[in-house]
Amino acid sequence: MTDPVAPLEDNTEAATKAAVFCAAERLFALHGFQNVSVRDITAEAGVNLASVNYHFGSKDALLFEIFRRRTAELNRERARMLHEANARHDGKPPVREILEALFAPPLRWGTTDNDRRISVQFIIRSRSEGTPEMREALTNDVSHLARFADALIAARPDLPRETVYWRLHFCLGMVHNNRFAEFDRLHVLSDGATREGDVEGLLKRMLDFAEAGFLA
Amino acid sequence: MTDPVAPLEDNTEAATKAAVFCAAERLFALHGFQNVSVRDITAEAGVNLASVNYHFGSKDALLFEIFRRRTAELNRERARMLHEANARHDGKPPVREILEALFAPPLRWGTTDNDRRISVQFIIRSRSEGTPEMREALTNDVSHLARFADALIAARPDLPRETVYWRLHFCLGMVHNNRFAEFDRLHVLSDGATREGDVEGLLKRMLDFAEAGFLA
DNA sequence: GTCTATAGATGGATAGAC
DNA sequence: GTCTATCCATCTATAGAC
Q: Has residue B3 got a pLDDT over 90?
Protein backbone atom coordinates (compact mmCIF):
# COMPACT_ATOMS: atom_id res chain seq x y z
CA MET A 1 0.00 0.00 0.00
CA THR A 2 2.97 2.35 0.47
CA ASP A 3 2.99 4.23 -2.78
CA PRO A 4 6.48 5.42 -3.63
CA VAL A 5 5.20 8.68 -5.03
CA ALA A 6 3.83 10.26 -1.89
CA PRO A 7 4.60 9.55 1.75
CA LEU A 8 1.80 8.59 4.08
CA GLU A 9 3.39 9.33 7.40
CA ASP A 10 0.86 11.92 8.58
CA ASN A 11 -2.55 13.32 7.74
CA THR A 12 -1.36 16.09 5.48
CA GLU A 13 -3.07 17.04 2.25
CA ALA A 14 -0.62 14.90 0.29
CA ALA A 15 -1.50 11.87 2.38
CA THR A 16 -5.20 12.19 1.59
CA LYS A 17 -4.46 12.66 -2.07
CA ALA A 18 -2.19 9.62 -2.14
CA ALA A 19 -4.78 7.51 -0.34
CA VAL A 20 -7.40 8.44 -2.92
CA PHE A 21 -4.95 7.72 -5.73
CA CYS A 22 -4.09 4.24 -4.45
CA ALA A 23 -7.66 3.24 -3.63
CA ALA A 24 -8.87 4.40 -7.01
CA GLU A 25 -6.14 2.57 -8.88
CA ARG A 26 -6.87 -0.68 -7.10
CA LEU A 27 -10.63 -0.51 -7.43
CA PHE A 28 -10.46 0.52 -11.08
CA ALA A 29 -8.00 -2.25 -11.87
CA LEU A 30 -10.11 -4.90 -10.15
CA HIS A 31 -13.64 -3.91 -11.11
CA GLY A 32 -13.44 -1.66 -14.16
CA PHE A 33 -13.74 2.08 -14.53
CA GLN A 34 -17.48 2.36 -14.89
CA ASN A 35 -18.18 -0.09 -12.11
CA VAL A 36 -16.43 1.98 -9.45
CA SER A 37 -18.08 5.11 -8.08
CA VAL A 38 -16.51 8.08 -6.34
CA ARG A 39 -18.29 6.85 -3.23
CA ASP A 40 -16.54 3.49 -3.49
CA ILE A 41 -13.17 5.17 -3.78
CA THR A 42 -13.55 7.54 -0.87
CA ALA A 43 -14.98 4.78 1.32
CA GLU A 44 -12.01 2.52 0.49
CA ALA A 45 -9.54 5.32 1.14
CA GLY A 46 -11.24 6.33 4.40
CA VAL A 47 -11.69 9.94 3.36
CA ASN A 48 -14.73 12.07 2.75
CA LEU A 49 -16.74 12.12 -0.43
CA ALA A 50 -15.64 15.57 -1.58
CA SER A 51 -11.95 14.66 -1.62
CA VAL A 52 -11.89 13.40 -5.19
CA ASN A 53 -13.27 16.61 -6.63
CA TYR A 54 -11.18 18.80 -4.34
CA HIS A 55 -7.85 17.12 -5.09
CA PHE A 56 -8.34 15.98 -8.67
CA GLY A 57 -11.18 18.05 -10.10
CA SER A 58 -13.39 15.19 -11.21
CA LYS A 59 -13.59 11.43 -11.39
CA ASP A 60 -12.34 11.41 -14.98
CA ALA A 61 -9.44 13.70 -14.14
CA LEU A 62 -8.42 11.31 -11.33
CA LEU A 63 -8.54 8.43 -13.80
CA PHE A 64 -6.41 10.32 -16.26
CA GLU A 65 -3.81 11.24 -13.65
CA ILE A 66 -3.39 7.61 -12.59
CA PHE A 67 -3.16 6.63 -16.24
CA ARG A 68 -0.57 9.28 -17.07
CA ARG A 69 1.66 8.48 -14.11
CA ARG A 70 1.65 4.72 -14.55
CA THR A 71 2.17 4.75 -18.30
CA ALA A 72 5.01 7.25 -17.87
CA GLU A 73 6.67 4.95 -15.35
CA LEU A 74 6.25 1.95 -17.62
CA ASN A 75 7.57 3.78 -20.67
CA ARG A 76 10.56 5.05 -18.68
CA GLU A 77 11.47 1.56 -17.53
CA ARG A 78 11.13 0.14 -21.02
CA ALA A 79 13.23 2.95 -22.46
CA ARG A 80 15.90 2.35 -19.84
CA MET A 81 16.14 -1.34 -20.71
CA LEU A 82 16.24 -0.56 -24.43
CA HIS A 83 18.99 1.98 -23.74
CA GLU A 84 20.99 -0.65 -21.86
CA ALA A 85 20.55 -3.11 -24.70
CA ASN A 86 21.81 -0.48 -27.10
CA ALA A 87 24.83 0.13 -24.89
CA ARG A 88 25.63 -3.59 -24.79
CA HIS A 89 25.58 -3.96 -28.58
CA ASP A 90 27.01 -0.73 -30.00
CA GLY A 91 23.56 0.61 -30.85
CA LYS A 92 22.38 -2.48 -32.73
CA PRO A 93 20.88 -4.95 -30.24
CA PRO A 94 19.40 -8.23 -31.47
CA VAL A 95 15.64 -8.76 -31.70
CA ARG A 96 15.47 -10.80 -28.51
CA GLU A 97 16.94 -8.07 -26.32
CA ILE A 98 14.67 -5.42 -27.85
CA LEU A 99 11.67 -7.59 -27.12
CA GLU A 100 12.93 -8.23 -23.60
CA ALA A 101 12.91 -4.48 -22.97
CA LEU A 102 9.31 -4.44 -24.18
CA PHE A 103 8.10 -7.51 -22.27
CA ALA A 104 10.01 -7.54 -19.01
CA PRO A 105 8.82 -4.35 -17.25
CA PRO A 106 5.08 -5.11 -17.27
CA LEU A 107 5.73 -8.77 -16.51
CA ARG A 108 8.01 -8.04 -13.56
CA TRP A 109 5.48 -5.52 -12.25
CA GLY A 110 3.05 -8.40 -12.24
CA THR A 111 5.00 -10.49 -9.76
CA THR A 112 2.61 -11.67 -7.08
CA ASP A 113 4.47 -10.01 -4.22
CA ASN A 114 4.74 -6.71 -6.07
CA ASP A 115 2.70 -3.60 -5.24
CA ARG A 116 2.81 -2.67 -8.91
CA ARG A 117 0.90 -5.80 -9.80
CA ILE A 118 -2.27 -3.75 -9.69
CA SER A 119 -0.78 -1.00 -11.87
CA VAL A 120 -0.31 -3.37 -14.79
CA GLN A 121 -3.93 -4.42 -14.67
CA PHE A 122 -4.94 -0.76 -14.53
CA ILE A 123 -2.89 0.06 -17.63
CA ILE A 124 -4.19 -2.91 -19.57
CA ARG A 125 -7.76 -2.04 -18.64
CA SER A 126 -7.35 1.59 -19.65
CA ARG A 127 -6.61 0.37 -23.16
CA SER A 128 -10.18 -0.82 -23.68
CA GLU A 129 -12.22 1.02 -21.05
CA GLY A 130 -10.51 4.38 -20.87
CA THR A 131 -12.13 7.77 -21.31
CA PRO A 132 -11.97 9.38 -24.77
CA GLU A 133 -9.14 11.54 -23.44
CA MET A 134 -7.12 8.47 -22.48
CA ARG A 135 -7.80 6.69 -25.72
CA GLU A 136 -6.72 9.72 -27.70
CA ALA A 137 -3.48 9.82 -25.72
CA LEU A 138 -2.95 6.12 -26.36
CA THR A 139 -3.54 6.48 -30.09
CA ASN A 140 -1.42 9.54 -30.72
CA ASP A 141 1.32 9.17 -28.14
CA VAL A 142 3.44 6.55 -29.86
CA SER A 143 6.89 8.10 -29.46
CA HIS A 144 8.02 5.45 -26.97
CA LEU A 145 6.83 2.67 -29.30
CA ALA A 146 8.56 4.33 -32.23
CA ARG A 147 11.91 3.75 -30.55
CA PHE A 148 11.17 0.05 -30.34
CA ALA A 149 9.97 -0.05 -33.92
CA ASP A 150 13.14 1.70 -35.09
CA ALA A 151 15.34 -0.69 -33.13
CA LEU A 152 13.52 -3.69 -34.61
CA ILE A 153 13.82 -2.29 -38.13
CA ALA A 154 17.55 -1.82 -37.57
CA ALA A 155 17.86 -5.37 -36.27
CA ARG A 156 16.00 -6.78 -39.27
CA PRO A 157 16.84 -4.46 -42.20
CA ASP A 158 16.01 -7.27 -44.60
CA LEU A 159 12.31 -7.18 -43.66
CA PRO A 160 9.81 -4.72 -45.16
CA ARG A 161 9.05 -2.00 -42.64
CA GLU A 162 5.35 -2.80 -42.48
CA THR A 163 6.15 -6.39 -41.63
CA VAL A 164 8.08 -5.20 -38.59
CA TYR A 165 5.21 -2.95 -37.54
CA TRP A 166 2.71 -5.77 -37.79
CA ARG A 167 4.92 -8.11 -35.79
CA LEU A 168 5.36 -5.45 -33.12
CA HIS A 169 1.57 -5.25 -33.06
CA PHE A 170 1.41 -9.02 -32.49
CA CYS A 171 3.90 -8.75 -29.64
CA LEU A 172 1.86 -6.02 -27.98
CA GLY A 173 -1.17 -8.28 -28.24
CA MET A 174 0.75 -10.93 -26.34
CA VAL A 175 1.50 -8.41 -23.59
CA HIS A 176 -2.01 -6.99 -23.36
CA ASN A 177 -3.52 -10.43 -23.02
CA ASN A 178 -1.82 -10.97 -19.66
CA ARG A 179 -4.88 -10.15 -17.59
CA PHE A 180 -6.09 -11.89 -14.47
CA ALA A 181 -9.19 -13.20 -16.26
CA GLU A 182 -7.14 -14.63 -19.15
CA PHE A 183 -4.72 -16.33 -16.76
CA ASP A 184 -7.68 -17.86 -14.97
CA ARG A 185 -9.12 -19.11 -18.23
CA LEU A 186 -5.82 -20.61 -19.28
CA HIS A 187 -5.57 -22.28 -15.90
CA VAL A 188 -8.96 -23.92 -16.42
CA LEU A 189 -8.11 -24.92 -19.99
CA SER A 190 -4.79 -26.51 -19.08
CA ASP A 191 -6.27 -28.13 -16.00
CA GLY A 192 -3.75 -26.40 -13.75
CA ALA A 193 -0.67 -27.06 -15.88
CA THR A 194 0.07 -23.34 -16.36
CA ARG A 195 1.40 -21.59 -13.30
CA GLU A 196 0.80 -17.86 -13.25
CA GLY A 197 3.37 -17.17 -10.55
CA ASP A 198 6.50 -18.00 -12.52
CA VAL A 199 7.12 -14.60 -14.11
CA GLU A 200 10.66 -15.26 -15.34
CA GLY A 201 9.51 -18.51 -16.89
CA LEU A 202 6.68 -16.74 -18.66
CA LEU A 203 9.08 -14.06 -19.89
CA LYS A 204 11.29 -16.73 -21.41
CA ARG A 205 8.29 -18.41 -23.05
CA MET A 206 7.14 -15.12 -24.54
CA LEU A 207 10.63 -14.29 -25.80
CA ASP A 208 11.06 -17.74 -27.36
CA PHE A 209 7.75 -17.43 -29.16
CA ALA A 210 8.10 -13.83 -30.32
CA GLU A 211 11.76 -14.10 -31.30
CA ALA A 212 10.97 -17.09 -33.49
CA GLY A 213 8.05 -15.19 -34.97
CA PHE A 214 10.34 -12.30 -35.83
CA LEU A 215 12.95 -14.48 -37.42
CA ALA A 216 10.41 -16.10 -39.74
CA MET B 1 -28.47 -3.72 -40.86
CA THR B 2 -30.20 -6.82 -42.20
CA ASP B 3 -29.44 -9.34 -39.52
CA PRO B 4 -29.53 -12.87 -40.91
CA VAL B 5 -31.15 -14.19 -37.76
CA ALA B 6 -34.51 -12.50 -38.00
CA PRO B 7 -36.33 -10.98 -40.97
CA LEU B 8 -37.41 -7.37 -40.81
CA GLU B 9 -40.05 -7.29 -43.49
CA ASP B 10 -42.93 -6.23 -41.26
CA ASN B 11 -43.68 -4.87 -37.83
CA THR B 12 -44.11 -8.17 -36.06
CA GLU B 13 -42.84 -8.86 -32.60
CA ALA B 14 -39.80 -10.60 -34.04
CA ALA B 15 -38.92 -7.53 -36.06
CA THR B 16 -38.89 -5.31 -32.98
CA LYS B 17 -36.79 -7.81 -31.09
CA ALA B 18 -34.31 -8.07 -33.96
CA ALA B 19 -34.07 -4.29 -34.26
CA VAL B 20 -33.25 -4.01 -30.57
CA PHE B 21 -30.71 -6.80 -30.87
CA CYS B 22 -28.89 -5.18 -33.79
CA ALA B 23 -28.92 -1.68 -32.36
CA ALA B 24 -27.64 -2.91 -29.02
CA GLU B 25 -24.85 -4.93 -30.57
CA ARG B 26 -23.63 -2.02 -32.65
CA LEU B 27 -23.80 0.57 -29.87
CA PHE B 28 -22.15 -1.76 -27.35
CA ALA B 29 -19.39 -2.63 -29.79
CA LEU B 30 -18.70 1.01 -30.61
CA HIS B 31 -19.03 2.71 -27.24
CA GLY B 32 -18.70 0.09 -24.54
CA PHE B 33 -21.27 -1.66 -22.41
CA GLN B 34 -21.53 0.81 -19.58
CA ASN B 35 -21.56 3.81 -21.88
CA VAL B 36 -24.74 2.74 -23.67
CA SER B 37 -28.10 3.08 -21.93
CA VAL B 38 -31.36 1.34 -22.69
CA ARG B 39 -32.58 4.72 -23.91
CA ASP B 40 -29.78 4.89 -26.45
CA ILE B 41 -30.64 1.44 -27.75
CA THR B 42 -34.36 1.97 -28.10
CA ALA B 43 -33.82 5.37 -29.72
CA GLU B 44 -31.40 3.86 -32.24
CA ALA B 45 -33.76 0.98 -32.97
CA GLY B 46 -36.77 3.28 -33.30
CA VAL B 47 -38.80 1.41 -30.70
CA ASN B 48 -40.20 2.38 -27.34
CA LEU B 49 -38.25 2.38 -24.13
CA ALA B 50 -39.98 -0.63 -22.59
CA SER B 51 -39.08 -2.97 -25.46
CA VAL B 52 -35.78 -4.09 -23.98
CA ASN B 53 -37.33 -5.28 -20.75
CA TYR B 54 -40.32 -6.77 -22.50
CA HIS B 55 -38.37 -8.79 -25.05
CA PHE B 56 -35.19 -9.60 -23.13
CA GLY B 57 -35.99 -9.15 -19.45
CA SER B 58 -33.25 -6.67 -18.62
CA LYS B 59 -30.32 -4.80 -20.10
CA ASP B 60 -27.86 -7.39 -18.81
CA ALA B 61 -29.95 -10.25 -20.20
CA LEU B 62 -29.93 -8.56 -23.61
CA LEU B 63 -26.16 -8.25 -23.39
CA PHE B 64 -25.81 -11.88 -22.47
CA GLU B 65 -28.04 -13.03 -25.32
CA ILE B 66 -25.98 -11.12 -27.90
CA PHE B 67 -22.84 -12.52 -26.34
CA ARG B 68 -24.09 -16.10 -26.37
CA ARG B 69 -25.31 -16.01 -29.93
CA ARG B 70 -22.21 -14.41 -31.39
CA THR B 71 -19.71 -16.56 -29.51
CA ALA B 72 -21.68 -19.66 -30.47
CA GLU B 73 -21.51 -18.64 -34.14
CA LEU B 74 -17.80 -17.97 -33.88
CA ASN B 75 -17.07 -21.23 -32.12
CA ARG B 76 -19.12 -23.14 -34.66
CA GLU B 77 -17.22 -21.63 -37.57
CA ARG B 78 -13.87 -22.33 -35.94
CA ALA B 79 -14.89 -25.90 -35.18
CA ARG B 80 -16.00 -26.40 -38.77
CA MET B 81 -12.64 -25.22 -40.12
CA LEU B 82 -10.78 -27.40 -37.63
CA HIS B 83 -12.93 -30.33 -38.66
CA GLU B 84 -12.09 -29.71 -42.33
CA ALA B 85 -8.39 -29.51 -41.51
CA ASN B 86 -8.69 -32.84 -39.69
CA ALA B 87 -10.41 -34.35 -42.72
CA ARG B 88 -7.66 -33.14 -45.03
CA HIS B 89 -4.88 -34.68 -42.94
CA ASP B 90 -6.28 -37.92 -41.54
CA GLY B 91 -6.93 -36.38 -38.13
CA LYS B 92 -3.46 -34.90 -37.67
CA PRO B 93 -3.36 -31.46 -39.28
CA PRO B 94 -0.18 -29.37 -39.10
CA VAL B 95 0.13 -26.42 -36.74
CA ARG B 96 -0.46 -23.83 -39.45
CA GLU B 97 -3.85 -25.22 -40.44
CA ILE B 98 -4.97 -25.51 -36.84
CA LEU B 99 -4.04 -21.89 -36.27
CA GLU B 100 -5.79 -20.89 -39.48
CA ALA B 101 -9.03 -22.36 -38.12
CA LEU B 102 -8.49 -20.24 -34.99
CA PHE B 103 -7.54 -17.00 -36.73
CA ALA B 104 -9.54 -16.90 -39.95
CA PRO B 105 -13.16 -16.71 -38.71
CA PRO B 106 -12.82 -13.56 -36.57
CA LEU B 107 -10.54 -11.96 -39.16
CA ARG B 108 -12.89 -12.64 -42.06
CA TRP B 109 -15.80 -11.33 -40.01
CA GLY B 110 -13.80 -8.13 -39.72
CA THR B 111 -13.75 -7.44 -43.45
CA THR B 112 -14.80 -3.85 -43.98
CA ASP B 113 -17.82 -4.68 -46.12
CA ASN B 114 -19.06 -7.32 -43.71
CA ASP B 115 -22.05 -6.91 -41.41
CA ARG B 116 -20.33 -9.13 -38.89
CA ARG B 117 -17.52 -6.63 -38.54
CA ILE B 118 -19.33 -5.20 -35.56
CA SER B 119 -19.85 -8.62 -34.00
CA VAL B 120 -16.12 -9.19 -33.68
CA GLN B 121 -15.66 -5.95 -31.82
CA PHE B 122 -18.55 -6.88 -29.56
CA ILE B 123 -16.98 -10.24 -28.72
CA ILE B 124 -13.56 -8.74 -28.07
CA ARG B 125 -15.07 -6.06 -25.86
CA SER B 126 -17.09 -8.57 -23.86
CA ARG B 127 -13.80 -10.14 -22.86
CA SER B 128 -12.81 -7.17 -20.71
CA GLU B 129 -16.06 -5.32 -20.06
CA GLY B 130 -18.58 -8.10 -19.76
CA THR B 131 -20.94 -8.72 -16.88
CA PRO B 132 -19.86 -11.20 -14.18
CA GLU B 133 -22.15 -13.73 -15.86
CA MET B 134 -20.36 -13.33 -19.17
CA ARG B 135 -16.93 -13.47 -17.62
CA GLU B 136 -17.82 -16.64 -15.78
CA ALA B 137 -18.97 -18.18 -19.05
CA LEU B 138 -15.73 -17.11 -20.71
CA THR B 139 -13.59 -18.56 -17.95
CA ASN B 140 -15.33 -21.90 -17.57
CA ASP B 141 -16.57 -22.58 -21.08
CA VAL B 142 -13.35 -23.73 -22.67
CA SER B 143 -14.53 -26.84 -24.45
CA HIS B 144 -14.11 -25.29 -27.90
CA LEU B 145 -10.59 -24.15 -27.04
CA ALA B 146 -9.78 -27.59 -25.67
CA ARG B 147 -10.24 -29.05 -29.16
CA PHE B 148 -7.65 -26.63 -30.51
CA ALA B 149 -5.30 -27.36 -27.64
CA ASP B 150 -5.63 -31.10 -28.23
CA ALA B 151 -4.99 -30.69 -31.95
CA LEU B 152 -1.88 -28.60 -31.28
CA ILE B 153 -0.59 -31.11 -28.74
CA ALA B 154 -1.08 -33.87 -31.31
CA ALA B 155 0.74 -31.81 -33.93
CA ARG B 156 3.67 -31.15 -31.60
CA PRO B 157 3.92 -34.24 -29.34
CA ASP B 158 7.57 -33.38 -28.68
CA LEU B 159 6.63 -30.23 -26.75
CA PRO B 160 5.62 -30.23 -23.06
CA ARG B 161 1.87 -29.79 -22.78
CA GLU B 162 2.11 -26.56 -20.79
CA THR B 163 4.29 -25.06 -23.51
CA VAL B 164 1.52 -25.66 -26.03
CA TYR B 165 -1.05 -24.08 -23.69
CA TRP B 166 1.06 -20.97 -23.22
CA ARG B 167 1.63 -20.61 -26.94
CA LEU B 168 -2.08 -20.96 -27.57
CA HIS B 169 -2.52 -18.18 -25.02
CA PHE B 170 -0.10 -16.01 -26.98
CA CYS B 171 -2.01 -16.69 -30.20
CA LEU B 172 -5.28 -15.69 -28.55
CA GLY B 173 -3.62 -12.47 -27.44
CA MET B 174 -2.76 -11.76 -31.06
CA VAL B 175 -6.41 -12.24 -32.01
CA HIS B 176 -7.86 -10.20 -29.17
CA ASN B 177 -5.60 -7.27 -29.98
CA ASN B 178 -7.32 -6.73 -33.32
CA ARG B 179 -9.50 -3.88 -32.16
CA PHE B 180 -10.34 -0.68 -34.00
CA ALA B 181 -8.37 1.40 -31.51
CA GLU B 182 -5.27 -0.78 -31.83
CA PHE B 183 -5.40 -0.67 -35.62
CA ASP B 184 -5.63 3.10 -35.44
CA ARG B 185 -2.65 3.26 -33.13
CA LEU B 186 -0.61 1.03 -35.40
CA HIS B 187 -1.59 3.21 -38.33
CA VAL B 188 -0.24 6.27 -36.54
CA LEU B 189 2.93 4.45 -35.46
CA SER B 190 3.73 3.13 -38.93
CA ASP B 191 2.82 6.46 -40.53
CA GLY B 192 0.22 4.81 -42.71
CA ALA B 193 2.31 1.81 -43.78
CA THR B 194 -0.11 -0.73 -42.26
CA ARG B 195 -3.37 -1.10 -44.13
CA GLU B 196 -6.23 -2.43 -42.07
CA GLY B 197 -8.36 -3.45 -45.01
CA ASP B 198 -6.22 -6.31 -46.31
CA VAL B 199 -7.67 -9.11 -44.21
CA GLU B 200 -6.15 -12.02 -46.11
CA GLY B 201 -2.74 -10.35 -45.94
CA LEU B 202 -3.11 -9.88 -42.19
CA LEU B 203 -4.14 -13.52 -41.81
CA LYS B 204 -0.99 -14.61 -43.62
CA ARG B 205 1.15 -12.34 -41.45
CA MET B 206 -0.41 -13.72 -38.28
CA LEU B 207 0.04 -17.31 -39.46
CA ASP B 208 3.68 -16.71 -40.43
CA PHE B 209 4.41 -15.21 -37.04
CA ALA B 210 2.51 -17.73 -34.92
CA GLU B 211 3.60 -20.80 -36.88
CA ALA B 212 7.24 -19.79 -36.45
CA GLY B 213 6.61 -19.19 -32.76
CA PHE B 214 5.15 -22.68 -32.43
CA LEU B 215 8.00 -24.35 -34.22
CA ALA B 216 10.59 -22.75 -31.92
C1' DG C 1 -48.05 -5.94 -27.67
C1' DT C 2 -47.04 -1.11 -27.60
C1' DC C 3 -46.33 3.02 -25.41
C1' DT C 4 -46.26 6.84 -21.77
C1' DA C 5 -45.38 8.13 -17.33
C1' DT C 6 -43.08 7.39 -13.36
C1' DA C 7 -41.18 5.00 -9.55
C1' DG C 8 -36.92 3.90 -7.26
C1' DA C 9 -32.08 3.93 -6.98
C1' DT C 10 -27.51 5.70 -7.85
C1' DG C 11 -23.95 8.67 -9.07
C1' DG C 12 -21.14 13.09 -9.89
C1' DA C 13 -20.59 17.38 -8.28
C1' DT C 14 -21.01 21.33 -5.06
C1' DA C 15 -22.50 24.66 -1.41
C1' DG C 16 -21.56 26.01 2.98
C1' DA C 17 -20.47 25.13 7.87
C1' DC C 18 -16.37 24.46 10.66
C1' DG D 1 -8.58 21.69 3.88
C1' DT D 2 -12.09 18.76 5.61
C1' DC D 3 -16.58 17.18 5.95
C1' DT D 4 -21.80 16.88 5.75
C1' DA D 5 -25.86 17.56 3.40
C1' DT D 6 -27.90 18.10 -0.78
C1' DC D 7 -28.79 19.24 -5.61
C1' DC D 8 -29.55 17.55 -10.01
C1' DA D 9 -28.92 14.50 -13.75
C1' DT D 10 -29.31 9.88 -15.37
C1' DC D 11 -30.35 5.27 -15.41
C1' DT D 12 -33.08 0.69 -15.06
C1' DA D 13 -37.24 -1.24 -14.48
C1' DT D 14 -42.21 -1.32 -14.18
C1' DA D 15 -47.10 -0.04 -13.65
C1' DG D 16 -51.01 0.94 -16.16
C1' DA D 17 -53.54 3.13 -20.06
C1' DC D 18 -54.78 1.94 -24.80
A: no
